[in-house]
Amino acid sequence: MKNSLMALGAALMLGGVASAQKVAFEEYDLDNGMHVILHKDTSAPTVITSVMYHVGAKDEQPDRTGFAHFFEHLLFEGTQNIKRGEWFKIVTSNGGVNNANTTEDRTYYYEVFPSNSLELGLWMESERLRHPVINQIGVDTQNEVVKEEKRLRYDNSPYGQLLPEVKKHMFKNHPYRWTTIGSMEHLDAAKLEEFQAFNKKFYVPNNAVLVVAGDIDIPQAKKWIQQYFGSIPKGAPVTRQTYTEEPITQTINASFEDPNIQIPMVVAAYRTPSMKTRDARVLDLISTILSDGKSSRLYKKIVDDQKKALQVGAFNYSQEDYGTYILYGLPQAPATSEDLLAEVDAEIVKLQTELISEKEYQKLMNKYENDYVNKNSSVEGIADNLATYYMLYKDVNLINTEIEMYRSITREEIRDIAKKYLNPNQRLVLNYVPAKDKAQN
């Protein structure tokens, strides 16, 4: 089985390359409001059935955080027609793989099967939507699974509290202030009826997009989609509250002690606009200029030349409503966190006052061209992108046109956006340090 799965993965990677430059797709709605996107690629005998639900951590209540991520696990427990513990057995026994993931904005489930198992994949995803079994034994089982995941990824992982600490200081009103994994106390306190109500509210056809991609016969796929999904009742419209954050106008200073580390980290974080905006895409380019690879500005200057940092980086954490631009560094003695932040700020000032060179700009564009091809080089990646562009951007064809948006960004815009968002009075400075008792040992 291991060899067959490896072969399947290789076929997927090879199969999508030919269509990476232009992704053809068809989209339509079922009567119950479910959006459907079909993408045909016959270069490999594989298919992907995936469903993205417009529900994430931001849709939770402040005293019941972690529900969306919890459902990522819970909805593998079984259905009325798939016995508990049988989901993964069915997938693997038919030569497939599956997984799911959750963000603040959405939850995504998918299966990859040989193309002759398309009907099976559609039936399984329709079962997850139509007939999930949400009972106490499933909740109790997954509660322990999620607790272990939290221990591994956050509580006992070096720098595992970095993102939670940044989020809680950057957002005061918006649900982005808590982590996707949420609070274990909230999950422990939740009653079974609360989980069932969450499922009834968000896991409905009119809050979902179904993507079927790969070696498919489109007329047959449509028949099966209608057969398995068409009769699922439409849910009540999902209404969402709008949250507004006041601008940050003076530096927020904070610190956090982590018992899992020995080397401090300094973090500078800036609140930025929605990932749907042009400004957010310019910030993506700025991240690449500053810290993508060993030839990037921050790495070359601070790590290689000055040897003031063991590691330094920048990334634009883009989300549907707001984003967070994060710069971080691990100082190398005798340099301090303050020294490191001063060097990072100097590079930002350069971006704010000087145009990047034509050579650096061309290198940047070449990288984004390459990234674009890679993003659409597998059928699995294409399915994920199709779902994301529909659900979060409301424009599926961005899978083909977003690269043009990046190409149209000018050197002047890069300078101006750096000047607009990356200023000392608009940020959080977090000193992330070893716990005192740990540092003394």
TrEMBL record:
Residues 1-20 form the signal peptide. Keywords: Hydrolase, Metalloprotease, Protease, Signal, Zinc. GO terms for biological process: proteolysis. The keyword Lipid metabolism does not apply. The keyword DNA-binding does not apply. InterPro entries: Metalloenz_LuxS/M16 (IPR011249), Pept_M16_N (IPR011765), Peptidase_M16 (IPR050626), Peptidase_M16_C (IPR007863). Residues 36-178 form the Peptidase M16 N-terminal domain. One of its GO terms (molecular function) is metallopeptidase activity. Residues 192-367 form the Peptidase M16 C-terminal domain. Belongs to the peptidase M16 family. This is Peptidase M16. The lineage of its organism: Bacteria, Pseudomonadati, Bacteroidota, Flavobacteriia, Flavobacteriales.
